[in-house]
Structures are given as structure tokens and as C-alpha cells.
# Entry
Amino acid sequence: MKITLLLHNAYAIGGTIRTTLNLAAALADRHDVEIVSMLRHREVPRFTMDPRVRLVPLVDTRVGSDDMADPRFGEPALDFPAAEKRHDQYSRLVDVRAAEFLRASDADVLIGTRPGINAYLARFGRRRALRIAQEHLRHDAHSKRLRAELAVHYRGLDALVTTTEADAAVYRARMPLPGVRVLSVPNIVPPADGPPSDGSAKVIAAAGRLVRGKRFDLLIEAFSAVATKHPDWRLRIHGGGAERARLQGLIDGLGLTGQAELTGPRSPIEAEFAKASIVASASDAESFGMTIVEAMRCGVPVVSTDCPLGPAEIIHDGRDGRLVPRGDGRALAGALIDLIEDPEGRRLMAKTALESSHRYDPEPIAERYARLFQELRSTRRRRAWRRALGRARSGARSLLRRCRRRLG
# Structure
């Protein structure tokens, strides 16, 4: 079976890129797999790719490339949804190249990995192929305008895959898609390359983009309470972003200079987590919670806010990590202090976390996709009937509303 995964830019760094490469490598054990990158801005990808997986770039954005000289490169995209956050990075040339590729593709399965690309998939993907949309962002993270447009496109697909069951339930409730299989499959998180943490370092680690939604400010404030009781412990925050200056100012203002550190981006992050004894996440929302699983892979327990949607599906509170209320700095500090003051309990939790992380091994996730492909093929006629019935009902409701407006 030939499987094609469609990415925004396989040459960049990001969670969706990393998880897509992981899935491609797992599927390559059984299938012919390729990754199609809408954009290419450098010679080679930043992440290491499995040599069995082909990489096909569509538009070269490097200075001096032939594509940069194409007049369509300077024209705004028309087929890529205008409400999609990446719209300004797309052009008419990407529209045309994506349509040409999808119409000519001989893939048995086409998988999109972001909303705008899923719209391409719905509009131009050949109907003989299974067309699957992955959603790596939460339903509620999309604007109302984008959700309305996606509802139209997604009705023509075979399946919609989210990273958490909670998000799949939201899509089922708020975006009815007759004939479309809506389900969750978590991201693959491979085992860490190096040895796990031995739990002896007096270090709390955190990682992610330095943006407001990640609430590193809340974590720093919580750590100030930790540092008062345990001044020999350190906080290391790995990542870059627009909030760096503000967060550094907060560290300095709380007198934590030398105890709390913004290290900048680190890749692979597992090497840093293995140097810690606790990992913390204070986010207001997580579509999945990649860093949580990566920390567990390193044998490190995670203290996380119980935010929508991912952490509660990853962490079993009190067994392989801790969950605290979102936005509650006092509870976050209390949970960190509890683990610091209970080294034996912390090591037991770390061991359980490492065992629990095997849920995200490549093999079981690839098997879930294999079962999905089989199910979608066997239910094609039934789902087509449901889709047609859904369109008929929707048309009837629209007609009824128009009639009522005229009569009213």
C-alpha cells in the first residue's frame, strides 16, 4: 500500500513535523511511504528522516530558486483557507502545485496534517484514495470562521483523526460529519536514545515555545515558592519565543537569577529531560502534550495543569505523574514540593511513568492506523450512503428555513 502524508514544511522544526516523521517511519515497516512538503526553505530537513521515506517538496522558497521567480509565487492563495493561520505563507503557486500533485497521485491513502492542507485534500484528492485529515490543534483553537469552512471540506473526507479522545468528542458534538469516521489516535513518541534519569539531579525542567498560552510565568511564580523551601533546586526552561524578555524580567524581579534559567531551544529535548528529576507543564491548553510523554520516556514524572485536552489522557494522577488545576500556581508549587520532599515516591512515580510511556510506542500506533485503513475500505459504501443522507437532510433543513423566512 502506498501512503502519502502532507506537511506544511518538512524542513522546519515543530511538533507536527516530528510526529509526522515518526508516523511515516512506523508505517514504512509495512508500506511504501512518502512525505510531501508544501514548502521548502533549506537544503536538508532539520530532523533526521527514515531513509525508507521519500520526501517530495512542492514549492522551493529558497532565495534564487526558480519558484521564487514564478509570478504566481507573489499572488495570494485562493484555495488555501483565508482564515487559516498559515495563509500568509501560502501563494497561488502552492495552490496550483498541491492541486496538480493530488490529482495525479497514485497513493492508496492520503493524510493531511493541518487544516489548510486538509482543505486541499478534500478539494483535489482523488476519490479512489482514502483521504484522512489529522487535526494537531484543538477544535476550539480554530476561529469560528475557519471551523465553518472546515465543516464543508471535512464532510467529503473518509476520516478525521484527533490526538485526544476529548477533542474527537468535541468534533462529533459540534461539527457533524455524516459518513466520516471521527476518532482519536495519539502521537507516536519513540523511546529516548539515552539512558533514563536517575532521579538524583535537583532540577525541575520544562520545555516549549515561550508564548503566553504555555504559562511559563505561572511556573516561574510557582518555582519561587519552591525555591524558598528548597533553595538548592533549579528550574530550567528550554525553548525560544516572543515571551523570553518578559519571562527573564520575571525571573530577575523574583530574585531567582541563578536558580531559574531560560536556556533557549534544545533538540533533542530528551537529553535535557534526562538531566532532571521532575518536569513541569503549566499550559492553559494542550492539543496533546508531547513534552509530557517525552519526559515520561526519560523516566521523569511530570507535574502538569489539568488543562484541555491532552494531559488528563496521558497522566494517571498520583501514579505516573501529577495533575493540578489550570492556572493555580499554589497547587502547582505544592505538587512540586511534594515530589521534592518524597524522593522514594518520586522514583517510584518515575519508574511507573517510564512503563506507562510504552502506550506511545511506534508499533501499536501504526497498528491502529492499519486497522483504520481496513475499516475505512470495508465501510466505504455504507459511509457514502450516510454522507448522501446527511446532505439531503441538510438541504431539506435549509429549504425549510428559507420557506419560513419568506412566509414570516
The mean pLDDT is 95. The first strand starts at residue 2 and ends at 7.
